[in-house]
Amino acid sequence: MKTIEHIAIFTSGGDSPGMNAALYGIVKKAEQSGIRLSGIRKGYEGLIDGDLVPLDAHKLQKMVHRGGTLLKTARSKRFLTLEGRQRALENLQKNEVDALIAIGGDGTFKGLLAFSEICDLPFLGIPGTIDNDLAGTDFTLGFDSAVNTAIENIDKIRDTAEAHNRIFLIEVMGRDCGYIAIHSGLGTGADAILIPESAHDFIQLLEKAGSYDREEAFIVIVSEGDELGAEVAAKKIKEINPDVDLRITKLGHVQRGGNASAFDRMLGIRLGAAAVEALLRGRKNVMAGILNNELSLTPFDRVVKEHQVNDELQGLLKIFGN
Ligand SMILES: Nc1ncnc2c1ncn2[C@@H]1O[C@H](COP(=O)(O)OP(=O)(O)OP(=O)(O)O)[C@@H](O)[C@H]1O
Ligand SMILES: O=P(O)(O)OC[C@H]1O[C@](O)(CO)[C@@H](O)[C@@H]1O
């Protein structure tokens, strides 16, 4: 095994609060171990363009709380091509990089799996996405912050909904995963929660909406990946209860911004330090995560395959959400 002297890091896919904390964890651990670090700007785009920059530990210390990512991020069409990945490899060789740390979501790790077919450097992953849609960790970086942002905004919408006796359908992010919807819906006492993982939730919503008496607020949280979606759900509610006053609000990218929660700051620092440590111990092609509050390393191929809302949460949804 080649000694690791130089590690390059990038953030990729959707940004998430806690990515800067993870960069801080990486920088401090590498400093302690005498490792040289480079940041790659704009995810796989920067890897293809050879956009490597030094990482400033002091600057990161001052922005450990901040959302977004100091290194910027991107969704890269070019990295989907073999030609793009070959250019990325040439840049790593030219800059004498010994190992790579990627902070991103399932797409990012699929990218690393494809890259590992032509590049045998050790890769280490850190789960950075608000969606919480990865196996190998109980929580991804940014999920807790995004849920807190969603909850804060749903609470506000409830005030105006109560004042007007309105039905509100509030769409939250999560791509094809219902975690943000479940956590923000249960945490705000929503009347119904629609998630991609459940087919029964809509039937239950219609039963409730049909008997809604228009004397209070009625809050429905709709995960953006739900098979029906907010517009169709709203149309169906109007069909069975035509006189209701109904509005749709899409929370959108506000959920990705803002300071990281205390939980995400600590998660980022722990996973950042753990990623460097794992590389120095010779681990490769695994994602660092936290399972039952213990650090854990899971191979990329497992991480991208499994991401189900677990049975316990599905059970809670039946009791509270619908
Ligand atoms: N099969 C693949 N082969 C090569 N590269 C890939 C593959 N899948 C994804 N990538 C690369 O990984 C990048 C990041 O993936 P994606 O845009 O899906 O975000 P993500 O990592 O899933 O994060 P988020 O969950 O926040 O959206 C893609 O833009 C693409 O460049
Ligand atoms: O910022 P973009 O590219 O529009 O992506 C939005 C998507 O990214 C996420 O915020 C993170 O994966 C999803 O919840 C959402 O579907």
Automatic annotation (TrEMBL):
Q: Which domain of life is it from?
A: Bacteria
* Pathway per the UniProt entry: Carbohydrate degradation; glycolysis; D-glyceraldehyde 3-phosphate and glycerone phosphate from D-glucose: step 3/4
GO BP terms in the entry: canonical glycolysis; fructose 1,6-bisphosphate metabolic process; fructose 6-phosphate metabolic process
Reactions listed under catalytic activity:
beta-D-fructose 6-phosphate + ATP = beta-D-fructose 1,6-bisphosphate + ADP + H(+)
Q: Which InterPro entries match?
A: ATP_PFK (IPR022953), ATP_PFK_prok-type (IPR012003), Phosphofructokinase_CS (IPR015912), Phosphofructokinase_dom (IPR000023), PKF_sf (IPR035966)
Named cofactor requirement(s) = Mg(2+)
Q: Which keywords appear in this protein's UniProt record, sorted alphabetically?
A: Allosteric enzyme, ATP-binding, Cytoplasm, Glycolysis, Kinase, Magnesium, Metal-binding, Nucleotide-binding, Transferase
Does the keyword Zinc belong to this entry? Answer: no
Q: Which Pfam families match?
A: PFK
Please give the GO cellular component terms listed in this UniProt entry.
6-phosphofructokinase complex
Q: Which PROSITE patterns match?
A: PHOSPHOFRUCTOKINASE
EC assignment: the record states 2.7.1.11
Compartments it resides in:
Cytoplasm
Query: Where would one find coiled-coil regions in this protein?
Result: none
MF terms (GO), sorted A to Z: 6-phosphofructokinase activity; AMP binding; ATP binding; fructose-6-phosphate binding; identical protein binding; metal ion binding; monosaccharide binding
Q: Where in this chain does the record put each Phosphofructokinase domain?
A: 7-279
Catalytic EC class: transferase
The family classification in the record reads: Belongs to the phosphofructokinase type A (PFKA) family.
Q: What is this protein called?
A: 6-phosphofructokinase
Organism taxonomic ancestry = Bacteria, Pseudomonadati, Bacteroidota, Flavobacteriia, Flavobacteriales
